[in-house]
Queue: 3 jobs
Job 1
Amino acid sequence: MRAAVLHEIGQDKLEVLDDVEAVGFGPGRVRIRVRATGLCHSDLSAMGGVLPQPAPFVPGHEGAGEILEVGEGVTRVKPGDRVVVCWLPACGACPACKRGQTELCLAGFMNAGTPNFRRPGGDVFGFAGTGTFAEEVVVDAGCAVPIPDDVPFDIAALIGCGVTTGLGAALNTADVEAGSSVAVIGCGGVGISAVQGARLKGAAEIVAVDPVASRRESALRFGATRAVPPEELPGAKQEVTGGEGFDYVFEVVGRSATARTAYENTRRGGTLVVVGAGAMDDHLQLNMFELFFDEKRILPSMYGGGDVLTSYERTIALWRAGRIDLAGLITHRVPLAEINEALDQMRTGTALRTCIEI
């Protein structure tokens, strides 16, 4: 079958090969025919070594498709079912799951160290234990979440990561208060989803911050009340909050510099939500006096900060009701053979989300 493979960490191009085999099928596992997958910035981060991932590997973790085959003991799905790929399935038995913090379950991360694919030259891993830049993937049954027939594969793929992460940051982690002021730093697919979440919660002012003009324009269409490049954030802070700072600031870039900016633009007693996935050696510096004196809440948001399955269902309900726009997030479409074009669209910021049609 065909799959896009990164041979070594640090390479900036993927090679689309037709000699890749999905492996690992057996009890408790399912084989999925991938129909659509989104390109998330985390894929680029893994390719560049920012996020830890063994190589060679097939990127992609935001996908949807059809069940081809189920292993012994699998009862939740059957061949022919439409599913979204969940890269962070909950085991239901660990301490995090028992506390209701299923987004902190480590079972999914354990899958990342087991090869999902094989080539004549040896094993190939799947990013985050999945690897959806391939025609087929074999994953644990818990990674295959059934979706209703009326949800298109491209929409379902977005729900698999970016939309759930951004919406959840506003709805679950921050629980944005109606009438509040919000700033979102970084307005790709995840940031725009955070904008939509803040709008749903009734935020009075939503300032979108991004260096790319087209993304700022998109943010306004999705519910931002104003959109500015980073250098104009201080002026927006003054105009919207009288210089006090925003009630909520979402950092959706994953860098210490933007997290520091987010902290400085959060009002005293306000909430900074860290959504971006950054590098282990990139340290955010805060002094002990400001932590004490400002009393700002710093809330990391992992995969939307809530039960993933509940979040999927909520997102589908909101989409059906026309309360959120998911189709509009897909600004570009490319076939798997042109995957490197999608990478360029992400790197230049010209795309909110590129759908790779497989």
Note: The mean pLDDT is 96.
Job 2
Amino acid sequence: MAAVDARGTELGRYLKARRAQVRPEDVGLPAGAGLRRTPGLRREELAALAGVSVDYYIRLERGRETNPSPAVVDALGRALRLRGDAYERLHELAELASGRIAELPASSDHAVRDSVLQMLESVRPLPAYVVSRYNRVLAANPPGRRLLPGLWDWPEDQRNLTRYVFLHPVGRALYDPWEENVALSVAHLRAVAGADPDDPELTALVGELVLKSPEFARLWERYDVCERGGGQKTFRHPKVGPITLTYEVMRLARTGGQRMVVYQAAPGSADEQAMLRLESADARPEPAPPGHPEPAGESCPAGVPSSAHASVG
């Protein structure tokens, strides 16, 4: 019996997770009589749709086959109804399994360049922050900190946006709607995890969230993939009230996956007025994280309690 190849394990996990999300009727197959033992398509159904043998597909899903041809990968993608990021992820994992590409760098760099810190200040009054590959907040300007109430109550190495949206009590009230935002947050984390699912930072975060949050565990098993480059979020902010902001996500070169997130509002709108209150004295400021003091002239009373934020990307 062929041994399981570690390179093919993640490809197999992905195929199994995506197969579970396709109903027979979605691809023109009869649901059949009686109770199906597993959700979604059976292995033999997917193999038939993709034009491969059942034995070959089983070996692929179990990590015993690690060199599918591009034509087979395309056929599986079509059979699974994959589009966009999900389709690209299938090809990426197949390339990794075959050894045609090397693994991604194992970990993110948590040091933020001085030029990036300067850029955070230059975009004020727009809220902005920098996150690591796996959504740990590394730096933020004052309105960016105030947009995330409560995040700074946590130790520096715990300030992760995905952790916050599931485990911080304010995080479950900050985003509207919560369910949609957390689903996109998990899909984004799956996307940025890339072809290195065993990275220690990622496995520690996922292990914690799987144990503490049934919602996260359910969404992580779905293996939805969506790398977000921008969009819109609505906040039920405890200090400035309801606010809807658009945001852009910019990758920072040579950082191991750092991203800068900048929010803005429509000029002259009530949302812009609420956003500007994050910059001004009528929003009680979050304390600056160690190593990132408030700029001169910024009013920042010591000891002000804070409260929470959620997902990025």
Note: Residues 288-313 have pLDDT under 50 and may be disordered.
Job 3
Amino acid sequence: MSDLKSIIDAAEREGLIPTQGSAPLTAFLLERGVTVDADRATRRRAAVAFSDTETPSFVRGFHDVLITIGIVVALAGLWGIASVYAVLPAVIVLAEILVRRQRLALPAVALTIALTVWTGVVAAALLDGWPNAAALGDNKALQFALCFPVVLGAFYLRYRIPLALALTIMGAIAVILLLVLQALSWMSGDPFFVLNHTGVLSFVAVACAVGLFALAMRFDLRDPLRRTITADVAFWLHLGAAPALLYSVLSLAGADGSLFATLQTVSFRTPLVVATVAALMLVGLVIDRRAFVTSGLLSLGFALYGIFRQGEARVDTYVFTTLLTVGVIVLVIGTGWMPLRRVVMGALPAAIREKLPPA
């Protein structure tokens, strides 16, 4: 009743109904069972206030950009003058000042990336080299991958940076993938099981990529209006899920693991890249994630490059044709994002549309 009365009072203030007419009109409507769906009204107000720009919260101003440049330059200089082990204390000190006290978002992203690079370099040094494809099923690769969720997870618990949580989740999924491969190698008795059964590796990779996308959607659906840290975590997870889906699908279709090498051959794989990226773009429209679409555009460029290269055009011709084609696609999607999304959303059931960001 309070919602109905407030609406009628507002109509009276706007001059839509006569003065002193709100009370009898309210009683008249209530006697006939007229009510206001508060949840639906809230959703409508939220939809009006929803911004479709998908601006990441770490983009705030040039103040953060200036400090981030200083972080990158200072850490690079420290790495060169001292050693890689001196970078970790510097990252922690800077995080205490810039993240925990001043709450600067872009420097937090830069420090998280620096910690990720540091973790990879130190882990490779301690394990005597970076793991290669032949080592995917052994303890070396597993130990290497395990370093990332452990270090970044502790970093997130201390500073609550969305990117740190997203990278922790990605690292945990990589550990799960390696555990499955190691279990398969152990059960088969073949230490080179991964190299001898690439199809199994592809199936496991696809499952992990789908799992990463499902986790990203779980975070996204918890905050469809994108007002909390949950949406930022989903942003980074989607940024990693799109290429993971693309490369795992390509490997499942018979690619040799290298997209660049695949595109040099005349086969069904190059059109497959285009079809897969198109599917990712459609998914990005449905979930309203431009980041999900953007991460597949580079691969689309290489795919179109491979298609045009099969013709008799000169090098400069198909290079510029590729650039023009990708540019037109980006412009069409960018300028027509909301109209295209309304068309796509209109084909979905109402139960699904209510859970997604408003179109």
Note: Residues 41-49, 255-268 have pLDDT under 50 and may be disordered.
